[in-house]
Amino acid sequence: MSAELLRVTNVGKSFGGFVALDRVSLRVRAGERLGLIGPNGSGKTTLINCISGALYNDVGEIHFEGRDITRLPPYVRARAGIARSFQIPKPFRSLTVLENLQVPLEYAARGRAGARRATDEALEMLELVGLRERAHEDSAGLTQVDMRKLELARAMAAKPRLLISDEAMAGLSSTEVDEVLGILRRLNDAGITVVMIEHIMYAVMRFSERVICLDAGQIICEGTPESIVQDAGVQRAYLGA
Amino acid sequence: MKSTVFWGALATIFAAGLALTGVVQNEYYYNALYLILQGTLMAVAWNVLGGFTGYVNFGSAGFFALGAYTTVALNKALGLPLPLLILVAGVVGGLVGVGLGYLTLRLKGVYFAIATLAMSIVIETLVVNWSYVGGAKGSYMLTPDTHLWFDSYIQMLFVVMLLLTLAAVAISRMLNSSRLGRGLSAIRDDEVAAECAGVPTLRLKLVSTSVMGAMMGVAGAPFPYFVTFVDPLSAFNLFIAVNAIAMPMIGGTAHWIGPVIGALLLGTTQEIVKVTISSEMNVLIVGVMLVAFITLAPQGIVGLARKLRRGRPK
Ligand SMILES: Nc1ncnc2c1ncn2[C@@H]1O[C@H](COP(=O)(O)OP(=O)(O)OP(=O)(O)O)[C@@H](O)[C@H]1O
Ligand SMILES: [Mg+2]
Question: Structural domain tally of chain A?
Fold first, then answer.
């Protein structure tokens, strides 16, 4: 059993009167590959927002590497090693694709490298996700699919300890899904903990060691990919069976 | 632009300015050049926050007047020399800029823009009711007798303004093409994504608003000596605020050279129109140019040049 990297304790978040997260608790081990599933509107993105600091949770605590990060601003969490991609891409539109990666490389990545190194590393990461050719184009002109790839690359560029990918594969072809799975797998082999939110079941099943299913802001089930598909509650809530 | 070329260009421009004072006597030219430079400095300052960081400021006249009235007050109270007055005006402008920076925590977009306008009005009201600096009636400034080796005081003011403007351009270029500049661009494009990429957005916005405020304060500091009579009407002139926005918009806000190009173009046009037609025409000219550029070239002259270069077959 390796060390605990992330601990979410009783986290709750409401929007007005609507409860998006209802006392969610979970733990992620260092080096783990965790799948997070759940129907539309079940609170997956909201949970990621609370972990990355894009939103502050109303109640509960979040610990990262044993440190309480519940009230820390997002940039501190990014520097501590939490990186996330955005489900709805948020590229830095006035910057080129390459510069989009330079921002996290220069601001979040540990042991900040010189400008030359940052460019080289950014290019390597673009190569990985297949955007090398577009490095010097304006990111605003990318297709939706390429923007998703850029999201993933930008999260990787922060050189995180924990990488959370929020539906990075939506809209990709099955070959591209396999490519992205390969990338995430390699990152994981290199010691990076990966939390993957995905609607593409095939991807979740193939990638995850453990799967957590959210429904209406609550964790309804947790287990191996095999056990999750058997779970009656998951089938009802998620698979619509 | 390469660094050596850039610094070479700055040195050449400054040397040319100095040389000019040895050749040309006519004070009119220095008046006109001073105003063009003042416009450039204001435009460069506005662009640090408005262009690089994406927070539109309608209250430039407030910061400018802050500098001008710092001079009036400290000249009257302590009789400080001009370099010190400029320094203090920069500090005052910078501090108020920091205050404005904290506003960005709560106000974004159009609400922030309106708040800057309100702030300018608040400062104006304070000045109007502050009789020490002349209140609504305004106050006269005595032109000092000493003007170094220059033939006249206005020549010296011109050289001072040239130096300040060149310094501001250098700072703006440094902000634009560096790690800091990429951080500011990220904030302009998406603050949440910027934070999640490790950018300390509040700290960077405070840098941006204080640099903007300091530059505008500095721009206003020599103004009382330039006009010799300052009142709220001249110091809080709407034209100053409008020019500070129009010049970067016309030149292009994304690149540091944009506001410089816009200011030189618009400023020179205004000075020419002032002598050949009338100064009232200037308001119309700014308006027409602004509308024309916003509809035809929203990225300004720099954006237009980029597009043309890219469109050309290789
Ligand atoms: N900023 C917000 N303001 C108000 N309501 C919100 C906000 N963010 C999310 N919600 C609501 O919270 C609920 C959970 O949304 P969330 O985006 O977390 O779901 P999700 O599991 O990521 O869904 P999907 O699979 O569609 O991405 C939804 O009903 C959504 O409308
Ligand atoms: Mg979601």
Answer: 1
